[in-house]
Amino acid sequence: MxxxxxVQSAGQRLPVRLVSASLHRCIxxxxxxxxxxxxxxxxxxxxxxxxxxxxxxxQSDLKESLGVATSSDLRIKEWExxxxxxxxxxxxxxxxxxxxxxxxxxxxxxxxxxRLLNGQVADSPSNILEEITWFKDQEVSRMxxxxxxEALKKAVENAxxxxxxVGALRTAHQRxxxxxxxxxxxxxxxxxxxxxxxxxxVEIAQAYERGGAACLSxxxxxxxxxxxxxxxxxxxxxxxxxxxLCKEFVVDPWQIYYARTKGADAVLLIAAILTDLExxxxxxxxxxxxxxxxxEVHDEREMGRVLGIEGIELVGINNRSLETFKVDISNTKKxxxxxxxxxxxxxxxxxxxxxxxxxxDDIAYVQAAGVKAVLVGxxxxxxxxxxxxxxxxxxxxxxxx
Length: 401
Hints:
Blueprint: E1 2-9, E2 12-20, H1 21-27, E3 30-36, E4 39-45, H2 59-66, H3 71-91, E5 116-117, E6 120-121, H4 128-146, H5 149-157, H6 165-176, E7 180-185, E8 188-189, E9 193-194, H7 201-211, E10 215-219, H8 229-237, E11 244-247, H9 253-261, E12 266-270, H10 276-288, E13 292-297, H11 300-307, E14 314-318, H12 330-335, H13 338-347, E15 350-354, H14 360-369, E16 373-376, H15 378-381, H16 386-394
Parallel strand pairs: 7-10, 7-16, 10-11, 11-12, 12-13, 13-14, 14-15, 15-16
Antiparallel strand pairs: 1-2, 3-4, 5-6, 8-9
GO molecular function, one term: indole-3-glycerol-phosphate synthase activity
Keywords: Amino-acid biosynthesis, Aromatic amino acid biosynthesis, Decarboxylase, Lyase, Tryptophan biosynthesis
EC number: 4.1.1.48
């Protein structure tokens, strides 16, 4: 009989089939390093249920820990924990699947079932964010082989100190009376295509800085946004003083280390694709590396989740729908009303308005709703003169000159 481990999550106890009784008799109580989508945590597996859920290991780690386990056992255990990751995400209202669905390995017998869509297994992405997330998981796996985590850790030890991203936004807000501007260096997007043909990221970043931007956001996704980590590195190396946000789709802690080695001062964490535990872990890791973390939400449920996580200073409200990609800036006001707004004020969080901001009226609207910073890309990057684009966005020159 298989051992079922009850796991406490989001007010539920989810049964997770971890180790069969026969396998447990072979290995006894062992420490297994497991990894769900790269999030490592050590826990002791025994016949008693652990107080925290276990994390899936890379296969090499599992082989070392289990010893006698067959390759079939390992495939089953890895698949089970992948499925547990899906169950946990579903319990927290996360609609974006991290990986394409896969059938259970031969010989599996357990409680997990594939998530169904209209009675069938949905083996294609349901929206663009899910497509990006699936591709990112594969991309990161390849990049990890070229840049091992141990090498990144050594590089981080020798990296210069980070700049104060949160402090820069607060200072800009106090200096100008407007929300602090995070100006985005972005060549393209899936919804709008190429935004600027003659795209020089360093030149644009320098113009943003002259125009009064408090911080910069640099797209590092190449396939969908025509960005890249080399652009982030080039901007930092060019002597730009603004703190830099690495605008990446983070699905693995490895990306946090990599961003740090390329000159990032902050990273983006998207609640729509990360569980509460993952956000908590990545927040702690970011802080350890000296990075700020902008945690992005799209709806009320995500906002409620994020407000229940300790240590968050920056909350981004994306006004773009994940399903339709339509933009509605009233989403910012809706998410900052009532109890959510009260908690944000009480915790002195900085709320960043994102997407759909093109005019001084738009800026005034989200500022009245409670934002202290805005992240803007399209409306200024498309301008021939980004400095004038910033002045036009705010209705006045916000530079210090």
